[in-house]
Write a structure and sequence with these properties.
Shape: globular
Helix content: 55-70%
Length: about 110
């Protein structure tokens, strides 16, 4: 798997609890480049009915694949202390909301 050179931004500026807004701005730049920003804003899609179309299945699988990638980017771009607190959160949109609650709305 090739590494996105933009992730260097997040590696150099890990989320540490005091830099949420700067970190989120950098994260959005990276996700925009990867066309995955939607994973931070959209809730997980409902499960697919058995009679779903091929297009619906592809979109469903793409959402889950992008969500997994975005979660991985988020989790690897924070300090270990924050990682421990948030590692049980399974979707990017929920992870972003939890981090905002922990770091901004505290």
């Amino acid at each position: 798997m090739s590494k996105n050179p933009l992730t260097i931004i997040l590696e150099a500026n890990k989320l540490n609890g005091n830099n949420y807004n700067d970190w989120l701005r950098s994260l959005n730049i990276i996700l925009d480049f990867e066309t995955q920003t939607y994973a931070l804003d959209q809730s997980p899609p409902a499960s697919l009915p058995e009679d779903s179309s091929a297009k619906e299945r592809v979109m469903f699988e793409k959402w889950h694949d992008d969500d997994r990638k975005v979660c991985s980017i988020i989790l690897t771009s924070m300090t270990i202390e924050l990682h421990v607190v948030t590692s049980c959160t399974c979707h990017a949109v929920w992870l972003r909301k939890l981090l905002k609650e922990l770091l901004i709305l505290k």
